[in-house]
């Protein structure tokens, strides 16, 4: 059945608005662990997600576009959208109706690289991570995929996007004197095999091995409150958790209270929430970044959003529905993990903008702690209080580093942390995050997050 | 087809899951959705070389691809063939035909019943959000060793958060589920969420320090799923990421604590007849009266550990259930914490001063290899003189689970099946009291 015919069928059955996302994806995954090939996988998936609007949203997904299956799915979605007695019909803000074709061609198509070659690369990197007998476990992996998404709506939008996705990862775990520590590294983005080439898996694996060994012999950090310097990898996770998520307009409106939570700054758009040095943005159009796209899953053209400007909360990330509630223009942040899911407001590439400080200036501290590499977060339901652990930490004394130390994390609340930012670096790095979860059923999405080195003040916690 | 293409062994895993979700936000139904995830995964083996392909629509080309992957990759010494046919027992209460065939309109009316129950409980309730999910899972596993088994399961599960009006917005959350429609009670979920919210309006501040803490079933489930579940997973144990590695037969917890994984638990929310390799599911002891006795395994990690599969080889691509698009890995199914001697109210009455925590949030092992975790409370109350006195502001707990397992001073008899957000397992959780927990 043609997609346009499906749209007309849904309108005839009473839908006020319809959109259909038809997707096809292919991917390869290679995983080597401890010298052995653990997985060598090829996948193909396809299908359509049909969204209809009547009294409320109705949605159905199918894996085949046979006429009968499409019509049954549409009937089901419409019946559900009509059935609720307790619903208020959402309003959608106007958006430019686009017809476009976007194809991001990678520099090196990873599907042209034979799987055997990718396996050899992973085996070699995995071997390099085992720098000595203290390293007990190693792994190396490569994922490459491509997705073609055709979006068609009853408003006349027709957008065909074809995007690549590649990432690679290395890990080493060391044990010394009963202490177990691990170090990992990864690269990824909307690109091809050039990402793997430029990452240099062998060198990174060896570095991970050496660092894991060093950390397994390191002292634990002593807990205390003091100035902290965060590297771009740590900043990327911090930005993700306490800037990106609370800027999602559905959270701000309290629509995600059941699971994902709300946002502590709900009433503060236009007001100061941090230091004048703090600027943060979300931009889907950062070429090569993990969260790159030109149109979101509502067909809204992507654009950069200035979320925080000079410490003022400036703009949120919207769907057409939340944009209508806020009386603003939609700004292209709706995405779904696949055709099987309804889109939600998600980050694309959310980052802290670089500032004016050199690294020498940032590290010019009488005493502080430098935290490198983000490990695991824990954030409260309003994105106010947080704890994020680091892969490694160093004491800073008058620009000199002592360490590494293991087991460090920072605990703070977002307003205090933001207000205490007193240096933002000129450098910048965008990092890949491949597992951002939201929604019910939960969806996992890849996003880009990043920033420069920055300095603030927080409680540094140690191991328990 | 795979054998004709050159495979010596082959295994096909087909899954067909339908998930109906009714989402509630701002006290109304905002989304009604049906997701159907169906496809086929094929593993083709030539000796110990295994290739895997999967697709939502399978064809000959993918069969040949799986065989070609097997040909070109090095052998996996931990692959010793696919499972053979084994005797499987019926699992009581696994599949409810009425629930499997529930109409979307009926699902919506159940969600609305839950919503109305929450709103009508107390006029101070201003906002209700949550979701109701109905899952119907079907799979079939066939392999060249003669295995040919079908499995199916149904599950209805809902959670709701009620929030009060006014400047000090208080929230309360409740959840519940069943494998059959007749055992599902939406009214009680709505009522409980609003009752907790109404009781949380005046929040008191609590000084940081050490407290005796009673975790209610939802917070026990959150803690044990995120911070205990991986530690008893054979994969994490082998990879040295578990704080239980090298500790089998040691005392690791209070003697009050016994935990097992129960894959064929009657009416278990994540029960299965067989795992996703065809191995029959069973009860696997993990901790017995404080002693660590076992882990959960699939066939590969059992081979690495020199033992046998425990029937925990599962395929989860995402949170939609057993999925054709993944290779098997060890996973917990229904993690059962054995109930204790206390009534839940007796646990409270027996606590001179402490905290009662209904719900924990964003609980992650921030240093997984040693079991340090961090979490915050959503819905906590102060206990004084054996009585629940007042609701308290959100707390952060940064602690070590191995230490807390030894600090258990009481377990209640009120076990409830709880599915944490995004989980592909369930924790059968009673209320548990811990001594000397640091909060800030």
Please report the distance between the alpha carbons of the first and last residues of chain B: 61 Å
Sheet with the most strands, sense and barrel status of chain A: 7 strands, mixed
Total E-strand runs of chain B: 22
How would the global form of chain A be characterised? globular
The average pLDDT value of chain B, as a whole number, equals: 94
Portion of residues in beta strands of chain A equals: 35-45%
- Tally the structural domains of chain B: 2
Oligomer: heterodimer
Low-confidence stretches of chain A: none
Biggest interface between chains: A-B, 83 and 90 residues
Structural class of chain A: alpha+beta
Summarize the amount of helix of chain B as a percent range.
Answer: 10-25%
Low-confidence stretches of chain B: none
Number of helices of chain B: 9
Characterize the overall form of chain B.
globular
**Percentage of residues in helical conformation of chain A:** 10-25%
As a whole number of angstroms, the C-alpha radius of gyration of chain A is: 23 Å
Count every helix of chain A, treating DSSP H or I runs of 4 or more residues as helices: 10
Topology:
The complex is a heterodimer of chains A (464) and B (440).
Chain A: H1 3-12, E1 17-33, E2 36-53, E3 57-62, H2 67-83, E4 99-103, H3 115-129, E5 135-153, E6 158-176, E7 179-189, H4 194-199, H5 201-216, E8 224-230, H6 232-244, H7 249-252, E9 280-282, E10 305-309, E11 312-313, H8 320-326, E12 334-335, E13 344-345, E14 349-352, H9 359-362, E15 368-379, E16 385-397, E17 400-405, E18 409-413, H10 414-419, E19 423-424, E20 429-438, E21 443-451, E22 454-461
Parallel strand pairs in A: 4-6, 8-15, 14-21
Antiparallel strand pairs in A: 1-2, 1-5, 2-3, 5-6, 6-7, 8-22, 9-10, 9-14, 10-11, 12-13, 15-16, 16-17, 16-18, 18-22, 19-22, 20-21
Helix pairs in contact in A: 3-5
Chain B: E1 9-25, E2 28-46, E3 49-55, H1 60-72, H2 97-100, H3 104-121, E4 125-143, E5 148-164, E6 171-178, H4 186-198, E7 203-204, E8 209-215, H5 217-228, H6 234-238, E9 259-262, E10 283-288, E11 291-292, H7 299-305, E12 313-314, E13 329-330, E14 334-337, H8 344-349, E15 353-367, E16 372-384, E17 387-392, E18 396-400, H9 401-406, E19 408-411, E20 416-418, E21 426-429, E22 432-439
Parallel strand pairs in B: 7-17, 8-15, 14-21
Antiparallel strand pairs in B: 1-2, 1-4, 2-3, 4-5, 5-6, 8-22, 9-10, 9-14, 10-11, 12-13, 15-16, 16-17, 16-18, 19-22, 20-21
